[in-house]
């Protein structure tokens, strides 16, 4: 409570004097919150941006805390309060009370607030620790360790050790380009060994602009860089005049330098985060230095402290996850896809972090990443980011996604050079195995080859476009373009079963072209044709996989009967493996691997798997697990919608007693109808009239259960086949 009149309170800021990462900002009318016991301070921001700060208050547990201030010193509006007010107004979430207390605040807001408010005398705790790689348990040097919410940080030394002053409570953020960030609680004394997980060698994106190279013999003092000996050591010393080894990181002549940031080092076209001293100085061929606009224009904000471009004599050096210098893998890029990754079932750990490993397709492009999240209270969040793949020297192929027979298309081969240097290499262009280009070329920014191709068949078009250099560097793409017939295929015809001596007259439209007449003495050839169409159907949802499997098993029996060779064993093996991968933990299937379960699809799949097992194939089907799950579904609240469940239970075990389930369904329906008036009952019967399929399905279920059924209803549905059979 405030005993003196003051201008109305605009915002209330609660913080801990000994814990920099704790900060909550509320609207002025909020007067209650749930806080843990401990020391706090409160800043009241008033209407005119004046403010006052309370003395330490001690929040006690197990009840409501009340405080009274008789005297307080109001500070007139100053730069701090003006900026704080501006931040609160420009951040939508700030000032809106939430059930968890306060709004989600960014690290920038905490840093701003603590820069003015935090008392450095609270840095009483000396914290020590060591940073290790989780891959090989080796020390990691140059890792930034920072107090969350404060501009108080240190860097691990060559042996991975660090030591500095921290508050008594709070958190540390440990970060480096090559490793996932890690946040740990502050402890008193030693934090012990801290393991960092390395990030896959996914390259960061850059904005691309070409600039002239500066050869080492032409460098002047204006391109000089001062760097720490731990960062470049002897690898650069002596290779470029003007490179000095000092205790600071800077590029002379840069208009601005971001504190505690290193220059970006590019070795053979890729960002280099390893120990530069591990490079053999005798392997260094060229060194180019970019600064200011030339650096940021090519490599973005990451190059604000300048860029050192190192080109080795081998031309293919990089670092692995352990930070060791290795040769780049020189492989042909063949895996192209519009979808980079799909991770729909991630769960965060106790720190709110979810991690996964992904291998991106080979496309050199910008990937848009969308993240949707939900917590246990069904609160949702959404964010977008981008991940750019990058190679400074690449060979790229560009073409239409498909071609039509009779098309004339132009395909492009592009050599892209995002370094300031002129490059030389052997460029090859192959079409269906035939070499159309093979020569040595020089190019600075790009070189484009255009080829005209005439499509005269439905065979796929195969292209290879590659670049190779004498030092071993290689890049290239291999792509296939599918070819389709022109137009939409349409057939019109007749199918007739010839019983005994039969004469049939057909009338054909002359405008439709030639006529193909085919007569078979057996139904098997036609049946095999239909099986081929099903086998070649392009989609692989679980329903289609089960249909294909049933068809293949039947085809195998038919061909054995006809004394013909069956050539699709690999297809059966593939489908069995695919169905196993798509199965849900409870043993059911949906349309796709991550779709909701569908009982009719599960029944269809199990029928196919049991037939395969009967035919001698090894099938991974946990019948006991699936039976327990199905019985549990029926026990909950059996309805007529569970007919497929009953069928599936009966399929798994013919001895399964299903009569009680059917009787329970009918009894439940009778009780429901008994409570309806004649008018409502008639309306329900009109609106919920069962379809023919549902009527037949229920009759089949009763027959399976050994119950009496009325067959007279079938006469309404009776039809005949061309062979006279009833269906």
Structural notes for this entry:
The termini are far apart. With 727 residues, this protein is α+β, with helices and mostly antiparallel strands. Strands 1, 2, 3, 4 and 5 form a five-stranded antiparallel β-sheet that branches. A four-stranded antiparallel β-sheet has the order 8-7-10-11, with no helix packed on it. The model is unreliable at 95-103 and 201-260 (pLDDT under 50). The chain folds into six domains: 9-118, no CATH class; 121-196, Immunoglobulin-like, CATH 2.60.40; 216-327, no CATH class; 393-484, Sandwich (Immunoglobulin-like), CATH 2.60.40; 499-621, no CATH class; 626-727, no CATH class. It has 13 helices and 32 strands.
Helices, strands, pairings?
Blueprint: E1 9-16, E2 19-27, E3 38-46, E4 51-53, E5 57-59, H1 79-90, H2 107-117, E6 125-133, E7 144-147, E8 153-155, E9 161-166, E10 171-176, E11 179-185, E12 189-196, E13 225-227, H3 229-236, E14 244-245, E15 250-251, E16 264-267, E17 270-271, E18 284-290, H4 292-299, E19 307-312, E20 317-319, E21 325-327, E22 366-374, E23 380-388, E24 393-398, E25 403-404, E26 408-417, E27 423-431, E28 434-443, E29 446-454, E30 461-468, E31 474-481, E32 483-484, H5 524-535, H6 542-561, H7 569-582, H8 599-614, H9 623-636, H10 643-652, H11 659-674, H12 678-687, H13 692-705
Parallel strand pairs: 6-12, 13-14, 16-19, 25-32
Antiparallel strand pairs: 1-2, 1-3, 3-4, 3-5, 6-9, 7-8, 7-10, 10-11, 13-15, 16-17, 18-19, 20-21, 22-23, 24-26, 26-29, 27-28, 27-30, 30-31
Helix pairs in contact: 5-6, 6-7, 6-8, 8-10, 9-10, 10-13
């Amino acid at each position: 409570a405030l005993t003196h009149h003051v201008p109305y309170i605009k915002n209330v800021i609660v913080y801990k004097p000994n814990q920099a990462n704790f900060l909550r900002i509320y609207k002025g009318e909020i007067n209650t919150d749930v806080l843990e016991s401990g020391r706090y301070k409160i800043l009241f921001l008033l209407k005119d941006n004046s403010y006052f700060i309370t003395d330490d208050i001690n929040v006690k547990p197990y009840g409501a805390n009340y405080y009274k201030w008789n005297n307080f010193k109001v500070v007139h509006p100053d730069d701090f309060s003006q900026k704080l007010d501006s931040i609160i107004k420009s951040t939508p979430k700030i000032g809106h009370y939430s059930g968890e207390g306060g709004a989600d605040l960014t690290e920038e807001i905490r840093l701003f607030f603590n820069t003015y408010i935090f008392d450095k005398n609270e840095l009483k705790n000396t914290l020590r620790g060591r940073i290790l790689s989780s891959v090989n348990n080796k020390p990691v040097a140059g890792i930034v360790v920072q107090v969350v919410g404060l501009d108080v940080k240190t860097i691990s030394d060559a042996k991975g050790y660090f030591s500095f002053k921290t508050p008594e409570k709070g958190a540390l953020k440990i970060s480096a380009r090559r490793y996932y960030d890690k946040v740990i609680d502050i402890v008193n004394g030693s934090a012990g060994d801290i393991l960092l997980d390395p990030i896959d060698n996914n390259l960061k994106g850059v904005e691309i602009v070409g600039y002239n190279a500066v050869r080492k013999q032409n460098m002047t003092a204006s391109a000089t860089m001062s760097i720490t000996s731990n960062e470049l050591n002897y690898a650069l010393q002596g290779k470029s005049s003007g490179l000095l080894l000092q205790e600071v990181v800077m590029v002379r002549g840069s208009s601005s330098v971001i504190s505690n940031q290193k220059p970006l080092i590019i070795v053979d076209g890729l960002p280099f985060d390893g120990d530069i001293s591990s490079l053999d100085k005798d392997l260094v061929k060229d060194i180019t230095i970019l600064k200011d606009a030339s650096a940021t224009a090519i490599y973005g904000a990451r190059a604000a402290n300048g860029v050192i471009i190192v080109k080795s004599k081998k031309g293919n050096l990089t670092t692995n996850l352990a930070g060791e210098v290795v040769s780049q893998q020189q492989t042909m890029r063949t895996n192209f896809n519009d979808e980079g990754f799909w991770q729909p079932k991630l769960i965060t750990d106790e720190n709110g972090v979810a991690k996964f490993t992904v291998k991106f397709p080979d496309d050199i492009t910008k990937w848009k990443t969308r993240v949707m999240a939900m917590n246990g209270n069904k609160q949702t969040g959404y964010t977008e980011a981008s991940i750019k793949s990058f190679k400074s020297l690449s060979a790229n192929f560009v073409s239409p996604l498909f071609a039509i027979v009779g098309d004339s298309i132009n395909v492009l081969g592009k050599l892209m050079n995002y370094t300031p240097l002129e490059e030389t290499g052997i460029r090859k262009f192959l079409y269906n195995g035939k070499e159309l280009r093979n020569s040595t070329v020089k190019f600075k920014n790009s070189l484009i080859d255009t080829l005209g191709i005439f499509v005269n068949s439905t065979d796929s078009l195969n292209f290879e476009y590659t670049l190779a250099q004498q030092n071993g560097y290689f890049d290239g793409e291999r792509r296939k373009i599918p070819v389709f017939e022109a137009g939409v295929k349409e057939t019109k015809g007749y199918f007739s079963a010839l019983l005994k001596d039969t004469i049939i007259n057909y009338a054909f439209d002359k405008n439709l072209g030639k006529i193909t007449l085919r007569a078979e003495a057996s139904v098997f050839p036609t049946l095999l044709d239909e099986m081929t169409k099903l086998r070649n159907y392009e989609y692989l949802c679980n329903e289609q996989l089960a249909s294909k499997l049933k068809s293949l098993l039947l085809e195998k029996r038919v061909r054995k009967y006809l004394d013909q060779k069956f050539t699709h064993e690999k297809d059966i093996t593939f489908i069995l493996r695919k169905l196993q991968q798509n199965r849900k933990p409870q043993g059911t299937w949906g349309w796709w691997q991550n779709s909701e379960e569908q009982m009719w699809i599960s029944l269809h799949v199990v029928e196919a798997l049991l037939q395969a097992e009967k035919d001698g194939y090894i099938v991974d089907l946990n019948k006991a697990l699936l039976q327990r799950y199905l019985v549990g579904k029926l026990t909950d609240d059996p309805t007529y919608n569970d007919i497929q469940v009953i069928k599936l239970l009966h399929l798994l075990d013919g001895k399964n007693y299903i009569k009680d389930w059917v009787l329970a369904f009918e009894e439940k329906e009778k009780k429901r109808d008994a409570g309806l008036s004649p008018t409502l009952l008639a309306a329900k019967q009109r609106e919920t009239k069962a379809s023919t399929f549902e009527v037949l399905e229920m009759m089949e279920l009763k027959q399976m259960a050994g119950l009496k059924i009325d067959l007279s209803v079938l006469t309404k549905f009776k039809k005949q086949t061309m062979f006279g059979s009833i269906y």
